[in-house]
Amino acid sequence: MSKVIISCAITGSVHTPSMSPYLPITPDEIATQAIEAAEAGASVLHLHARDPDTGKPSADPALFMQFLPRIKESTDAIVNITTGGGQGMSLDDRLAAAERASPELASLNMGSMNFGMYPMLGRYKTFKHDWEPTYLESSRDWIFRNTFKDIEQVLERLGQRHGTRFEFECYDTGHLYTLAHFLDRKLVTPPLFVQSIFGLLGGQGADTENLFHARRIADKLFGDDYRWSVMAAGRQQMPFLTMGAINGGNVRVGLEDSLFTRKGRLAESNAEQVRLIRSILEPLSLEVATPTEARQILALKGGDNVGF
């Protein structure tokens, strides 16, 4: 087995400021938590930006450029910039920061899907900002769009023009077949970094059967041409990551995916989640990959070839 790559998704666009006082909002908070996560053992940092005044997800490249250089100066971790963005963003919005920064790695959702965040409304009685309940409720009637043409554009604008490789986010089995379609067309090249995602409303459920089914189908479609990683939302985060790692997968933690370390206890930082999964992996004789090793495993262009 290869060493386990720990990715850390620092802030995302799902959770809102009222849900946790530890969710990083400002560029300074995002940079600080990203650096701490890298120091704790994360070799990949998956990054979104937020409006520093309201905490609302933002696609503004200027905000990204307030924390990207600081992260690069302080750590050799791999920067992975979202192309998923957040609700209401166009494809051009979602690509703007990555095109500006020319990162080693970018996320790429492998299809359009319903993306339901509205059930979280029932868990909170009050909100700090007026946009939060509206944002969550509007997901009841929101489709995250990534058509075949959209995916082609991302692959061309980032992959071909910038040499950026991708974290292929697969929320169901159909997304694996879509990725295989692009592999057949030679628009993507191995090794493929396949992120199997579980437990988000609109995607595959956090059931053990789905975890093993996703691995079987990926093995069938890609053979030795992919590197598997596992991400699960909320309370399923650590159990699914542990099962995935035992079965040869890499892992993704972070406050984008879960705000907790265990039932009823908020994670006080992204680094805390990194330390927790590391404390599970290492006693199982699973070694954690360094950024240098992760670059080799994923065949990335190197940290000297980015635009920040």
Automatic annotation (TrEMBL):
InterPro entries: Aldolase_TIM, BKACE
Alphabetically ordered keywords of this record: Metal-binding, Transferase, Zinc
Superkingdom of source: Bacteria
One annotated GO molecular function: metal ion binding
Cofactor: Zn(2+)
Pfam families: BKACE
Record's protein name: 3-keto-5-aminohexanoate cleavage protein
Biological source species: Paraburkholderia elongata
